[in-house]
Amino acid sequence: MTILVVGASGATGRLLVEQLLERGETVKIIIRTRSNLPHAIHNHKNLDIIYGSIGDLSNEQLIKYVESCHVVVSCLGHNLNLKGVFGQPRKLVTDTARRLCHVIKESEPTQPVKYVLMNTTGNSNRDIPETTTLPHRFVIGLLRLLLPPHVDNENAADFFRTAIGRNNEGIEWVIVRPDSLIDATNVSPYTEHPSPVRDPIFDAGETSRINIAHFMSELITDHSKWEAWKGQMPVIYNQP
Ligand SMILES: NC(=O)c1ccc[n+]([C@@H]2O[C@H](COP(=O)([O-])OP(=O)(O)OC[C@H]3O[C@@H](n4cnc5c(N)ncnc54)[C@H](OP(=O)(O)O)[C@@H]3O)[C@@H](O)[C@H]2O)c1
């Protein structure tokens, strides 16, 4: 299987790439030239590195990179500095999803391509009833006004729910929602839920990046897991 990962140089993306390579998969990544990758994966024989900023690549280039891929994963996120949070591209995650889905369709895949989008528990799944408190809704309203990356995460998920939908012939998707991300050295037990079981604003739990990478690797390589979660927005927490 060949998997394209965007955001592969990020704290979660690089862990995902490492785990996919360990499972024997072939991985293509698109990273900016200044991005760092751990030495161990940089020279891996099953890793194809494409240098460039995803927003600067033409559709023709993207089609070339996407057409042999069975899975696309986005671990993109806005860099946590002033330029990353408030500068351009404000729609990094959403525009990348739109463009990659466009070129997936253009490439006329013979079987549906799987798209895994890394998202957040701060974004609710409006396909199903997810109850939130009034204070929660107030804070989310503020985040929408003040934090462009939050709006980008919401719009990217909405794009899959509403524009791609659950019965698309060319694309199947899963939107993965970690709670507060933390770093850990090893994979540890974690739980999977269709919706948050604690308030992501006032009672956030923890999710290790390595556990999210593990969950995404399982989704990609285990057919029954994919079938169980496709078209949904699973929430992952570290087991306390
Ligand atoms: N922090 C949390 O507690 C939390 C909780 C839940 C969900 N999330 C979400 O989880 C996702 C990933 O988190 P993370 O900590 O693994 O992210 P991260 O380490 O910040 O990685 C972000 C990735 O996006 C890339 N990127 C950023 N701006 C870019 C641009 N303009 N053009 C191309 N690539 C760009 C980065 O590339 P470079 O290496 O080149 O900069 C990097 O590969 C984010 O969407 C975040 O919203 C975060």
Write the layout of secondary structure elements.
Layout: E1 2-6, H1 13-22, E2 26-31, H2 39-42, E3 47-51, H3 59-66, E4 71-74, H4 82-86, H5 92-106, E5 113-118, H6 134-146, H7 148-164, E6 171-178, E7 180-182, E8 190-193, E9 206-208, H8 209-221, H9 223-229, E10 235-238
Parallel strand pairs: 1-2, 1-4, 2-3, 4-5, 5-6, 6-10, 7-9
Antiparallel strand pairs: 8-10
Helix pairs in contact: 1-8, 3-5, 5-7, 8-9
NADP nicotinamide-adenine-dinucleotide phosphate is lined by residues 7, 9-13, 32, 35, 53-55, 75-79, 84, 89, 92, 118, 120, 149, 153, 178, 180-181, 209.
Task: Describe the protein.
The chain has 240 residues and is of the alpha/beta class. The chain has one domain: 3-Layer(aba) Sandwich (Rossmann fold). It has helices at 13-22, 39-42, 59-66, 82-86, 92-106, 134-146, 148-164, 209-221, 223-229, and strands spanning 2-6, 26-31, 47-51, 71-74, 113-118, 171-178, 180-182, 190-193, 206-208, 235-238. An 8-stranded mixed sheet has the order 3-2-1-4-5-6-10-8, with helices on both faces. Helix 3 (59-66) crosses helix 5 (92-106). The model has no long low-confidence stretch (mean pLDDT 96). Bound molecules: NADP nicotinamide-adenine-dinucleotide phosphate (NAP).
